Amino acid sequence: MFKKLYDFFSSVKLAIFLLLTLAITSIVGTIIEQQQDPEKYLMEYGQTTYKILKFLGFTDVYHSWWYKLLLFLLAVNLIVCSIKRLPKIWKVAMNPRKTFPPGQEKTLRVSSSITLRAKIGEVKEKLIGALKARRYKVEVSKEDESEVHIFADKNVYARFGVYIVHLGVLIVLIGGLITAEFGYRGYMNLAEGTSSNLVGSFSGPDIVELPFTVRCNKFTIDFYPSGMPKAYISDLSVIENGREVLRKEIKVNDPLKYKGVYFYQSSYGQGAAVLKIKDKNSERTVKVAFGQPIKLAPGVYMRIVSLDGRTMTIGIEYIKDGKVQEVVIKPFILYIMPGTDKAVSIVDFKPVFYTGLQVAKDPGTWIVWVGSTIMIIGLIVAFFIPHRRVWARLEKRGEEKTRLVIGGLSSKGTEGLAQEIEEILGVLKSSYCENTPKEDEL
Amino acid sequence: MITSVELFNAGMVAYFVAFLFYTIYTFSKSSWASKLATGLAWLGVILQGAGFIVRGLEKARVNMVSDWTAFYKYAPFTNMYESLMLFGWTAVLLYLLFEWKYKNKAFGMFVIPLALIGELSTQILGFSSEAQPLVPALQSNWLLFHVVTTFIGYAAAAVSAGIAYAYFIKREDVTEFDWAVIFVTTWFIFFFIIYSAYRHDALLYLGVSALAAAVFCGLLYLMRKVGISKILPSAETMEQIMYQSVAVGFVFLTIGIILGAVWAKYAWGGYWSWDPKETWSLITWLVYAAYLHARYIKGLRGKPLAYFTIVGFLSVIFTYYGVNLIIPGLHSYAQ
Question: What is the predicted ipTM?
């Protein structure tokens, strides 16, 4: 049973199946719009189809249980496959047969022989020198009066390129998991001169409270002469314990970072309201941009979701304990917010610009970068660096003559290796040049 | 002063003449035709390479920058026209490098027209060739590296697909089923390219592209009949070159996706947003990853691997044309 499971998870066929299944199911998420409001789906697909899509997870493919399961299986496949194959590869790579008995050259992809007019010891030194010059690790595996065997190899690590890639993929998957579990992405809409520490979520009622406040000092748009926008710039300040601790102008592609939280220039808009928030003993007026949450009490927030400048009417979302309720607030009327001792009324409407910031905290990012780097290194090693081995046998043919048989194997393409062996023979020939290669067949 | 568009066009003319000489060489084996073909292809690459430099200067002008940062910040690869030029240019350059490495000119006849069709499609499909100023989202140091690596990946995919088609000319045991697969994949390759430009009357363009694919398959069939297979290298060599090309493509595609993720982190707030372009690049990546594993399974060697290569290229085409123009998303700068 265990053996069967082990074989199943270590198979390459499973890897191909999983990769292709992931590819095909990923297509679904690019055809059906993801993570939209139920109303939108109902309008587009109707009740029944929507129910089916929802049941299958097609409205949020990449977060559905089966997509995660596929990724999980891929990770298991990767690990089991590597565990199964690594020891074998290790053995092959690290403990090759190092001697070179006669006849062995026939099993090699590249081989050649030559008889040289020199002492066996001289040829040996020259050959070792030539191999070392080509960055080979050289070992004399057998040596006696009449015969010397030499084994040399280089880039033995290239055998492990594939596993480096797999390790990288695994680390990227772990990073992705950490992002999904511990990261968040949301938005802040800040009108010039306003500040907040509340981050709204793009979909749903979640609101994150930052341990510091961000203020928008100024928002500008630069234009090209043609009227096309050239740059969106927000001048932001970070305020912690009542003090400005950081100030930066952010642009698209140039965010602000503070305590692991990034603030990106992502949009802008127009419209802010001045609200009066009153409780038993005090009242305050706040200017707040469209969409930006305000805190009323612990766990209770509100945000403006529609503005009508003509009638001075605003629609708000009232969020309590993760539940959303929509309320319309008309001018001059004080609305008591249920579950709090606060009352809200609208004072003024201002058509000012606000900057739309995307706010993200993502502890998985660095892990993904590490995994990606490992993956790229692994790919380059796996595809472009050949593990080459060379065997050579020197045979004594009388006092002044030595026959050299040399051959090799390469893990990728033999042209490069053949050329190297050709060069090495060239070096030897130029030193002991009286013989032509033809002669040695005798 | 000479404009970038003129240089790009001159390059296309050079490619076309090179294609003619590659064809003459393939049939006549004459050495002067072979030398002229390679020389002209290199000339095209040089002309278009100069085209990119001039384009960079033009873009600096419309973006009102005068220092050297203009070259990487406003890199000339930011709309359909420019990126298709980059695609064709990279494909020819990559082909020439393969030609030089493998000392084999048999594929010029297949790869050069692929690049040329890509570049010519800017005129047929009516993409504007004007140098435009850059929207804020694209003003990044990452732009150059992300786009260039991705396009080397795309071009390698095109080269491998070109070889895969030639492979079906070489193989003697091509069945009706094989022809059907080749036809359908080619049909969709054409369809995505054509439809992305018009985005209406899907049925009409489905018909037009079916016709184009039929003509294409007819040409392949004709080439088999006239015995081109004799001039092609052995099936094993072709499999090897196909693999090499996919390997290059896969490495660059991976680097391109990762650089895209880095850029996304600084521009959009997260390294991965499941934007359609991202997702489709992942799909392409998965298809090629499956190809690389399929090599280890005996039953999948040979023709199935060639299918994989063509399907991978289909996925590239969709990532490039389809997503830019059919599915809207964060990457839809080119509309």
Answer: 0.86
